[in-house]
Amino acid sequence: MPKFRFKLESVLGVKEAVEAQKQRAFAEAQRRVIEKEEARQRCLEEVRRTIVALRRITESHLDIKEVLSHQRYINSLRVATARIDAELPPLRAEMEKRRLELVEASKERKALEKLKVRQFEEWRKEQDRIEQKSLDEMGLNSFRAKRKQVAGAKGAETVEDEVAISGETQEEAGRSDAPGKGDRGAGPDRD
């Protein structure tokens, strides 16, 4: 049986490569968003810790230099958080863009894979049909050979017996040049 060959296999390979590249691009965009979100979360956590530390300082003793230092640090953390907040929307938009590109590439690959499966099923059905036809023909030939063998052993007495053995129609049997067949009944060549 011949091997199945998908004519668009090279196109499918390209689609798979494109999808893999889109997957990497999406993962990279997602990584950048996650890193920024984590940095923002760290800044907010540090602001909370610093505020708690500042309250302890002001409750226990009042050191202006220390209070101002903590205030400047809190302000710098808030500026960093605001900067991250400004950077996140374009990064999220880029991540969404990459996700949509990945979805599209995945759809294209899946469409080709479905076509490949459909063509394989059609090819397999055709191969099964060809194989069944071949088996039927072999079985019929075997049956005819056995029938001829049996008829030869018993001796065919009538044209109808010979016709039944060979599978010929009566008209074909009447036209045959074989001995014993042409002399029975009226055929088209007879006057």
- Please provide the count of β strands: 0
Strand content: under 5%
| Low-confidence residue ranges | 180-191
Main sheet properties: none
Radius of gyration: 44 Å
Give a topology summary.
Layout: H1 9-60, H2 64-154, H3 159-166, H4 170-175
Helix pairs in contact: 1-2, 2-3
Give the key terms.
191 residues; mainly alpha; Helix Hairpins; 0% strand; disordered C terminus
Protein architecture, described:
It is a single chain. The protein has helices at 9-60, 64-154, 159-166, 170-175. It has a domain at 9-121: Helix Hairpins (Orthogonal Bundle), CATH 1.10.287. Residues 180-191 have low confidence and may be disordered. Helix 2 (64-154) packs antiparallel against helix 3. With 191 residues, it is mostly helical.
Give a brief description.
With 191 residues, the protein is mainly alpha-helical. It has a domain at 9-121: Helix Hairpins.
